[in-house]
Write a structure and sequence with these properties.
CATH class of the largest domain in chain A: Alpha Beta
Distance between the termini of chain A: 35 Å
Helix content of chain A: 40-55%
Largest interface: A-B, 56 and 55 residues
CATH superfamily of the largest domain in chain A: Type I PLP-dependent aspartate aminotransferase-like (Major domain)
Largest sheet of chain A: 7 strands, mixed
CATH architecture of the largest domain in chain A: 3-Layer(aba) Sandwich
Number of helices of chain A: 14
Number of strands of chain A: 14
Structural class of chain A: alpha/beta
Shape of chain A: globular
Oligomer: homodimer
């Protein structure tokens, strides 16, 4: 009978109007019925990503789409910069290394955003860099990199920009075409309110021309084939039909609300979350915090795994701890997709209870007061 | 208000007891709750595949798992035999070519099973072949290759056997360990009664030792990482949580009925389907027909696309036509997963109506009489 709530940065809650779609009878994928659904999903993704570029849907989780970007754009030995300030920036470097690229890993302190001047210096020192691979919201630190400026710098060096927007998409501002981002990678299980199983790749004309030269092996993630099928609202291989059907419905709902409105909403929720944490005497990890997730630093005497455990086991509330060097140092609270103000109020109420249990001192209810002030007031 | 029925060889119908699981609230994948589900799924897959080898679950459709087998087992220039007697045998050759293997494509007439003597000759002529890549049920022709003998021949040459069992699994007999099959690839959307989105790979010790030498690039489909996580019922990347949850329930149901019983059941349904087709004056394409799907040849004056269209548009019944050189020459009726005798009776009743509409002559109801005779008695 325990109530359960998911406030982790992916998977995030799937609302009942989408879970109902997941439970519908399956339809065949080589039919007009499915092609119409796919057409809706393709258009909806373009709206959400603010792009006229085609956005192909892959049946794989986000890492699969990240691999697709690498294996389709580059050739062995190609020079790329991977901005690495957390687990998912590191993943770009790992994937690129797996495919024998010449990887310049730009290390950024965890919790900080990439320093654009340093990036410019790296470009100046290293001629012939083909691309910069970076992250919209670095989920492990809840930090947003300055994609607009990173893209400008890359363009000056005639390099393309590849952005992992898996956890940021839908909350953190991303103007794909206006900023000139060549590749955006997304996933179904965060801001899109769906289960994991689908990922997306938007492809600019410049990225398409790079793809022509690529000599890396690929088959399932061959984007040329996927783009070709995309034209007729089809896929090269059997897609995850039920999740695609729910995706079309999710995108319709998201785009009806409007992406700008959603950015504002989550910016406000994120601001409120930061204010609430501060009211409890806690601080924010990130110097450029995300609108999708907030990473809250805990005092040295409190292990975040304790807090996560209490919330999960006693109260059915799932929030995330820290990963790697941030293990036990932070908690991460997601505000993405279907999560709203009421969820945050409820979350902080339990967070206060858990903090009290481990002996942290603060004024009861103070985080809730601040949440209300920022959100409603 | 139109009733709809899916009798295509994948996706195949998803029963309501599994669609209900797909509609459940999402759970986080890094929890004991999910690890228990994954443990059940892992065990269930071993039972279904008749193997003690670990079976890893990948969030991708079947082709992704086929690629995983190729990119993890081999190195550039490795010699392999691909048995190619239909679209999916060809796919093995295509994937292996994409990864620059030295591919010996053993061409088999579409509708025929691989001639094991010829395979032996190929092995004798070509020294150093590392593997034979083949198909349990070749979906495009509804033909089952003799996996038991193919494996024996490969073993003599010290080669491993890699079997695409995507559409055959659950209906066509496959004794992974007893026959000594090294790699079995499966998918969720056929005999497992689930939507597409998951695939599986079972890995023998010999395959594991080949994996150590492989130098092909891979990341998302890295089986070493997947096998390592498999030990603690975990996955390297976010899995398609909802389909995995339904998979555990599906496997429990399938294994409770028992795989041997299911082989018998579908063998009988397939036999009945062949008898029913013959009663209508039609013939069977395959010389070694599958228990999962039946391919029925139509007279030269009838295009199968006509029949498929009438059934789909007028009666909501989806069966498949032929692909590539079999386009318009055959229809394919699936009997897999959730499909049962009553579905076949209903399908043939409509098939008779469509055949009449295009002017084919036969005794009304004769296919239904034969179905009843073979199935019930």
């Amino acid at each position: 009978m325990k109530h359960k709530k998911l406030m982790t940065p992916g998977p995030s809650p799937v609302p009942s109007f989408l879970r109902e779609v997941l439970a519908k009878e399956i339809i065949h994928h080589r039919t007009d019925e499915f092609r119409n659904i796919l057409a809706d999903a393709h258009q909806g993704l373009q709206s959400l990503l603010c792009t006229k570029n085609p956005v192909v849907i892959l049946s794989a989780s986000g890492t699969g789409a990240m691999e697709a970007a690498v294996s389709n754009l580059f050739s062995k030995g190609d020079k790329i910069i991977a901005i690495s300030g957390g687990k998912f920036g590191q993943r770009w470097a790992e994937i690129a290394n797996s495919f024998s690229l010449d990887v310049i890993e730009m290390k950024v302190e965890w919790g900080a955003a990439a320093d654009c001047k340093k990036l410019e210096e790296i470009f100046n020192k290293n001629k012939g860099v083909k691309a910069v691979l970076t992250t919209l919201c670095e989920t492990s630190t809840a930090t947003v990199h300055d994609i607009e400026n990173i893209t400008k710098i890359a363009k000056k060096a005639n390099a393309i920009t590849v952005v992992d927007a898996i956890s940021g998409l839908g909350q953190d501002k991303l103007l794909t075409d206006q900023w000139g981002v060549d590749i955006v990678v997304g996933g179904s299980q965060k801001g899109l309110m769906l289960p994991p199983g689908l990922s997306f790749v938007s492809v600019s004309d410049k990225a398409k021309s790079l793809m022509k030269e690529s000599d890396l092996p690929k088959y399932y993630f061959d984007l040329k084939k996927a783009l070709n099928k995309h034209k007729s609202n089809d896929t090269p291989y059997t897609p995850a039909v039920t999740i695609v059907a729910a995706l079309a419905v999710a995108l319709d709902a998201l785009n009806k609300e409007g992406i700008e409105k959603r950015w504002e909403k989550f910016e406000k929720l994120a601001k409120a979350t930061r204010a609430a944490a501060k009211a409890l005497g806690l601080s924010i990890l990130s110097s450029r915090p995300s609108a999708s997730t907030t990473a809250i630093k805990l005092p040295d005497n409190i292990k975040s795994s304790q807090i996560v455990k209490i919330l999960r086991e006693k109260y059915g509330l799932a929030i995330a701890g820290g990963q790697a060097q941030l293990k036990d140092k932070i908690v991460r609270i997601a505000h993405m997709g279907w999560i709203n103000a009421q969820d945050l109020i409820s979350c902080f109420s339990l967070f206060e209870v858990a903090l009290k249990e481990v002996g942290h001192q603060f004024k009861s209810g103070s985080s809730l007061v601040r949440l209300e002030e920022v959100i409603y007031g």
